[in-house]
UniProtKB/TrEMBL annotation:
BP-aspect Gene Ontology terms: cellular response to oxidative stress; hydrogen peroxide catabolic process; response to reactive oxygen species
Lineage: Eukaryota, Viridiplantae, Chlorophyta, Pyramimonadophyceae, Pyramimonadales
Protein name: L-ascorbate peroxidase
Cofactor names: heme b
GO molecular function: heme binding; L-ascorbate peroxidase activity; metal ion binding
PROSITE patterns given in the database record: PEROXIDASE_1 (PS00435), PEROXIDASE_2 (PS00436), PEROXIDASE_4 (PS50873)
Family per similarity comment: Belongs to the peroxidase family. Ascorbate peroxidase subfamily.
One Pfam family recorded for the sequence: peroxidase
Enzyme Commission code: 1.11.1.11
Signal peptide: none
Organism: Pyramimonas obovata
Enzyme class name: oxidoreductase
Amino acid sequence: MNPASISVSTTARCRVPPATQLRAGSSPRFVKRAARVHQRATAFEVAAIDTGNQHADDVRSDLSVQVGRRAMLTGLTLAAQALTTSSYTWTAKAEAETGRALTATEISALEKAFAKEVPKAKAPAVLRVAFHDAGTFRLASNDGGLNGSVGFELKRPESFGLARGLRPLEKIQKSLEGTPAAGLSLSDLIAYGGAYSVRITGGPAIQVPVGRVDVAVEDPKGRMPSESLNPVELKEQFAAMGFTTRELVAISGAHTIGGKGFGGGLDFDNAYYTTLLDKPWLKGANKEELEMNQMIGLPSDKLLPEDEECLMWIRMYAKDQALFFRDFSSAYLKMIDMGATYA
């Protein structure tokens, strides 16, 4: 199977415990809601690619469904404890909480508009917008996330250069007026734009749900990960957003496109991981070459292989691009759902 043809949707088989396995003392509402989620979730299926490595069983067991944040906050913590929170994690929520699938006519209108405004050269900038809009989410307070607030945050230091990716999306939103895709929110276009950027640079096709409602204020400040974080700090920061280490390493693979020096710059592949293992910033035939190589990657990228848990996934993705594509796809779907409110 061609890795670029992999299409990941928002449904998967899960193992949510039935209501009969709930802890004693659970409220009637809690029991009813858990039973409903269990009934719906067990009907979902997704085909898993056998990775052919020692983690194949782990990959299959990770094809589970994470009960959404709103459900957890209203009492469905049991499901979150019972499920493996990994890269193969989707949400099983009502359509009002997960959005809806795009229609064929909407997709046609979107593809036409994106083809005009987002050439391959702009793909890294557009993908960066999705990461910055979503990166403010925090599980503890259940706020921030991909909600269109990034337009109010362009003057922040971490948002330097972000307008280059946001402006084409704003143009697209205006150009969609009078088309079947009219009415899609800016946050919908940010989520779609990130997936579009991944696909046109050779990455996996990711089906993005829509129906998000944009906010009219900026998100809290100081939440974007610093470029100098060490692996422990980085894992803590991503855990605060609800990401596992596996998801952190998978989503970091987005750095394979752009100007960070990994691979060809406009080719979405697993070059990020092979480069992390090669460590070119430690090599150089002369001073000039060494200085050039030291410009590859962010400080946090270079430190990632120093963590044993991160290194395990780096090695796996360097060896298996199809696995990276699948893990990135599902981590991306999780990221663009964080903090989203659907109409």
